[in-house]
Design goal:
This protein has 346 residues and is an alpha/beta fold. It has twelve helices and eleven strands. A hairpin with a 3-residue loop joins strand 10 and strand 11.
Length: 346
Amino acid sequence: MKLSLISLLHCPKCKGSLSLIEAQETEGEIEAGKLECSGCQAIFPIRGFIPRFVQSDNYASSFGFQWQRFQRTQLDSYTGTNISRDRFFRQTDWPAESLAGATVLDAGCGAGRFAEVALSSGAQVIAIDYSEAVDACWRNFALHPKLHVLQADIYALPFQSARFDFIYCFGVLQHTPDPRIALLALPVLLKSGAQLAVDIYMRHWTSMLHLKYWMRPMTSRLPRSTLFQTVERSVPFILPISRALGRLPGIGRALRRLVPVANYEGVQPLNEQQLHEWAVLDTFDWLSPKHDKPQTPATLRSWLVEAGLEDIEVAKVAHLVGRGRRPFVQTASCKNSSVDAAIAVT
């Protein structure tokens, strides 16, 4: 943890200020120690360079498990592709140059596939995850001068309000117990005029035909290691079947959906090893989560409106994407605006 991070933080329980105690420093960063709240005296440990604001065993534990196993799988620097970079900029619609020098929150970083994109654009990235995926993220970019990694809960974020120029939250909301409340926790962290981009699985009657929704009531109850071993052993047999079906003219794309395996042939520019690795990763990702709550475009838009954002856009990109901007705080002559007053309070 970098000392400069403390200026962004407060206690997630009482919003009191935090002070560093019992610090052990390595190469200019805090490797171990504690953060103590001046208000409620809560103690939050720092382990492995990462402040920990949650217990490790939680509803997102399966994601921590998978990103420890697939630490580099989806990083563009590992695949030699622009898959994550292209998705990031399609979904945010932010000019890459606008990130240079900006303070950016990655809300649900996983192993850091999108953090890598933001860092490469010159942003200071504060990356959080509820699971122990934060350890994989930190290892991927260890001691990067512009990266801060925290293990934290999106429902009780340890940040002072109005501190971020950009916030993105990809691959996260549908896997939280209450996606609406999770989304509403983010806009208050935006500076005046700052921007938010989120995605979520799109709810449609056809999506409920996906085999994962039929299998998950059973598979999500399995121990993570058992489910992973089952997926890992099955993929070498069922992925070739899916690929063969997918090559059939006309109906191939539809038929391969009948095989419960993530098949990116013809979808992503991956080599044979990567196709196999992504198949294991995303098939496990389909079957392991405790929560999976797709939403309609109208619902997502209503949440962004409720959050008080403006310039709202909702569109189907890789997933259902929502974007918005926190309203600008007006000058003193415009204090009577109810929106401005609400922002000023925060």
